[in-house]
Every structure is written in structure tokens, then in C-alpha cells.
Amino acid sequence: MRKGLLVTAICLTGPLYVTAVPAQHCAGVEIEIASSERRCLTPGAGQPFKDCERCPEMVLVPSGRFVMGAPSSEERHPGTSEREDQVQVTIAKPFAVGRFSVTRGEFGAFIAVTGYSMDGACFDGSSMAYSAERSWRAPGFAQGDGHPAVCVSWNDAKRYVDWLATVTGKTYRLLSEAEREYVTRAGSTTPFWWGSSISTEQANYNGSVTYGGGPKGEWRKATVTSDHFAANPWGLYNVHGNVWEWTEDCWSTANADNPGDGSARATGDCNLRTMRGGSWNNYPHTTRSARRYMNRPSNRDNFVGFRVARPL
Predict the structure, then answer these.
(1) pLDDT category of residue 78 using cuts at 50, 70 and 90
(2) Where are the beta strands (DSSP E) in the chain?
């Protein structure tokens, strides 16, 4: 190879194509994939990459600023007083985030290699009760490897990202609450990345209730595959509905004490952890970009999964 050239993989919508290009031609961000490959990616373009065969697909999101939370005029669920006060957040550097929630197949690879124990009951959102028969393998509805992993606690998710970091030699972690809202919005300021109303043709939730003038729809009472609906402008799928996703943050009742720099909140009630996104078991109000909720880190539910992040 001539001096001054490097091997760069250019990811299109199909197979991976590798070609030698001058390093100075990278107009995006050059990142190292696994241990021997370097790629030139454009933040926000939705170009997927993976650090190993069974690793989650990742996309690069841009740096930027956004207003976290929602204005008081944004429609909430009737009868609730959700604390979604608005704060300015700055994301100083691009970072990589899972294109999908971690899938059942990806989580299964972790279990198979490590033998990690998943003993214990999982809460069933349909029966509204804990069941020893429910687990990530048998959540109470049919799933394939392309569905999001559920019945996964925050503690389980942390073990998974630690394993992923060990396998790849890269830093993997859960998203912060601020990052999760940032990548959901993808530059939007409306309740959903596509606008102010929602239908069950756009997301997986309980469609018996309407929002923003949208129509009623079906209640699937189960997950759909991770790529079932359209991706947002940055290439992320199912950021509204399907499954709640754990974040790193300790719970706080308000956004006002958010660090403001994209990092996770390490203060507040750390006996609870923050979740984002809403699920198949929730009304549409709950799937909004700004909606926040909490859960005990040891709890497993068949409507809760997680997504991973990777700093560059």
C-alpha cells in the first residue's frame, strides 16, 4: 500500500465495500472498528457498523445542542402532572448509538458465551403480574432473534455492556437520559420525531387511545421486530414505543438537575433508574420524546429492553 493511504470501509445499504482512499479525503469522522479496520463515517447519515459478528449495529450521531423536555403546552396523558421541564443540553462530540434496541439474538449470544444467570420472575404487562414462567426466552408472546430483548433488568443490561466492552476492546455503555432524548429527536422539537400526532402505522403502542388528532389503531400486545417501522433521520429505529429502554441515570423527578452536558445523572435516587421511549403496553402520550419514567434496577418486565452507546 502506498504511503499516505489507509483502508477505509464504506458502508452502503447493502454489503460492506472496502477500498483504499487517502486519509485526508475523510470529510466525516474516522473511527476504528474492532481492532484492525478504520472507517470514515458521516455523523447523522445512518451508516451502520459492527465491532463483531454478534455485536449490535451502531450508527454515528452528530454533536449539537438541544432543548431537553417539553413545553407546558405539549399534550400529556390526562390527569397526570409529568415533570418534563426544559433544559439546554450540549452534546460536545459525536458518538455511536445502537441502531436498534439490543435484540434477542444479540442478548442470547451473551448468555451462551458467559452462562450469565437470568433466574427470577419477569413482570407480564398483559396480566399485570410477575410470573416465573416469563423470561427473556419466553416473554409471553412470540419473538424471533430480530425482536428486542425484554425481561432484562438494568443490572442485566450493565453486565451485557461490560461483556461487550471486553469482547471488542471498545467502550460500550448505556445511553444517558439526555442522550436518549437527543437521538430520539434527531433535530426535531415535536412530540415525535416525525411530528405532533401518532398512529400505530408509525410505532408500536396501545392504539385504543389517540394523540394529537391521530387515529385510533391496534394494540398488538407484543413486541414487533426491531426494524418494523421507519428509522428516524439519524438512522435509529423504534425510538418511540415497542420497548422502554434503560438509561444510565439515577432517577430525579425533574430535568432541572440534569448535568446539561449529555452525561448521566449520578445524583438523585439511585435506587431507581430512568427509562425512556414507552412500550407496546403504553398509551401514545407515554411514547413522546420528552416522556420520562423510572424503575428498580433489579426489575425485569416484558416491555423493557435497552440500547447501547459507544463513545469514540
Answers:
(1) confident
(2) 5-11, 16-22, 29-33, 37-41, 58-61, 64-68, 87-91, 95-98, 122-124, 129-131, 173-174, 244-251, 269-276, 292-295, 304-306, 308-311
